[in-house]
Design brief:
The chain is of the alpha+beta class and 479 residues long. It folds into three domains: 264 residues, 3-Layer(aba) Sandwich (Aspartate Aminotransferase, domain 2); 107 residues, Aspartate Aminotransferase, domain 1; 85 residues, Ornithine Decarboxylase, Chain A, domain 4 (Alpha-Beta Complex). The protein contains 13 helices and 21 strands. The strands form six sheets. A seven-stranded mixed sheet has the order 1-10-9-8-6-2-3, with helices on both faces. Helix 1 crosses helix 10 and helix 3 runs parallel beside helix 10.
């Protein structure tokens, strides 16, 4: 048990009366969350301060930086979102350019908007087999920086939601030749670098600032994350300044304690935990070779992928004969297995060190059972030659930066009437939260057909309103 949770327990059991926040006063015995309330405090004497740590929180952050081999680590209690906002805000100012992966999470776009920066987009490779984003290549980073040498930083996502990893070492070397930092959204890779059977972390491979969501793959509460800094290209004072802006001024000690406990647990038990996970994955993938209708993506012939996270399980039908949404619903309703997300033709499962052998066994049994049923059905492919190309993955026509669109009034138009208009708001699938359309981009007919297809398939499309008629926000008086 970590030092922070120990101290919270001691305070809860003491006779100290709380004439301080929070308002539940650690005294809500009728609530199912009474134990939670008993440990929930504010910044009082002896408990340090996340925004200016000098004691036990600072000690815990130093343990985390040592574990991940960073120069300095900051705890995030507003999720990776706060780290991405702070990281981008610290390196780019108004009207300055930043090279940013077009598959970035919406929080990166929000940071660009808040700083009124000018994004230059880099598009990852595309897989027409799985219909997912591939890697960002060092060659393309170099190409874009030659075109836009005024960029102040490079921002990419690695791994992606599906576990696709880019060549961080080479990309960092490219960025550093231009004397600019590489920021990596490694939200889905908090387990990276902790065991030789899994990929190295971007912070170990030369990235200057790395954001990880502990809660995604490690035993830590939802909303907990880490921001790692290494080297001299990132202004630490600016990072602290913007973390003070984007993080709550009343951070939850339960979340801080959760981070501390997760770090300590992995330090003490990591070798066995990762050994078990690796063994479970190996058995799962071996059995998955028996599948005929389905396939579990391993990227053995991955021309579009630098590397893959073996703990991220991506399942799809070999001939795209079933939608991801249908497969997700079948696994949930018939086999009581809840997957993380559904794409057009695939589902994604997140596995980690707290998963059990029984969990992996249940999943492969379900897939083998479904494989037999669907093989007998002889389903036809669902591929649409009009929309199921790399429409989502080709470069859009950017007319304005997101911040510049504030200078226009907005209006809602029917989606079928939006061709040739300029987007006034984001349209994105959630998860993963990467925009299909960004404010300031020209809307084209094929992209609208793809958005409509996503909705028909049952995917969660955000940014389209209306019940009977589907509406999209566009700029008034646009060009």
């Amino acid at each position: 048990m970590g030092e922070i949770i120990n101290k919270l327990n001691q305070y809860n059991k003491s006779d100290m009366y709380p004439f301080h926040m929070p308002g539940h006063k650690r005294n809500f015995p009728t609530s199912p969350l009474s134990d939670f309330y008993g440990l929930d405090i504010t910044e009082i004497d002896g408990f340090d301060d996340l925004h200016d740590p000098e004691g036990m929180i600072l000690d815990s952050m130093r343990k985390a930086s040592a574990l991940y081999q960073a120069d300095e680590t900051f705890f995030l209690v507003n999720g990776s979102t706060a780290g991405i906002l702070a990281g981008i805000s610290a390196v780019v100012m108004e009207h300055q350019k930043i090279l940013i992966g077009r598959n970035s999470h919406k929080s990166a776009y929000h940071a660009v908007y808040l700083r009124n920066a000018d994004p230059v987009y880099i598009y990852p490779e595309y897989s027409d087999r799985v219909h997912i984003w591939g890697s960002v290549t060092p060659k393309e980073v170099e190409h874009k920086l030659l075109q836009y040498p005024e960029c102040k930083a490079v921002f990419i996502t690695s791994p992606t939601y599906e576990g696709v990893i880019s060549d961080i070492k080479e990309i960092a070397e490219v960025a550093h030749r231009y004397k600019i930092p590489l920021i990596v959204d490694e939200a889905h890779g908090a387990h990276f670098g902790l065991d030789k059977r899994f990929p190295q972390s971007a912070i170990q491979l030369g990235a200057d600032l790395v954001i990880q969501s502990l809660h995604k793959t490690m035993p830590s509460p939802t909303q907990t994350a880490l921001l790692h800094v290494k080297g001299s290209l990132i202004d630490r004072d600016k990072i602290k300044k913007f973390l003070g802006i984007y993080q709550s001024s009343s951070p939850s000690y339960l979340l801080i304690a959760g981070i501390d406990e997760a770090i300590g647990y992995v330090q003490d038990n990591g070798e066995k935990l990762f050994e078990d996970l690796s063994a479970n994955l190996e058995k799962f993938y071996l059995k998955a070779k028996e599948l005929k209708f389905f396939e579990v993506f391993r990227g053995c012939d991955r021309a579009d992928f630098f590397d893959l996270d073996p703990s991220r399980i991506v399942i799809y039908s070999k001939q795209n004969q079933i939608s991801g949404k249908e497969l997700l619903q079948i696994l949930s309703s018939q086999y009581h297995i809840q997957m993380e997300m559904a794409g057009m033709y695939h589902v994604t499962a997140i596995s980690g060190i707290m998963d059990t052998e029984e969990g992996f066994s249940r999943l492969i049994r379900a897939l083998l059972d479904l494989d037999h049923k669907f093989t007998e059905q002889k389903r036809k492919s669902l591929l649409d030659p009009v929309t199921d190309t790399n429409i989502f993955f080709i470069e859009r026509n950017k007319i304005f930066s997101p911040g510049e669109t504030d200078g226009f009034n907005k209006e809602k138009v029917k989606i079928q009437d939006a061709t040739g208009r300029i987007a006034a708001d984001y349209v994105y699938l959630y998860p993963p939260g990467s925009p299909i359309l960004v404010p300031g981009e020209m809307i084209d007919e094929k992209l609208l057909l793809l958005i409509e297809r996503y909705m028909e398939t049952g995917l969660n499309v955000r940014g389209i309103s209306g019940e009977k008629e589907k509406l999209i926000d566009v700029l008034q008086n646009d060009v």
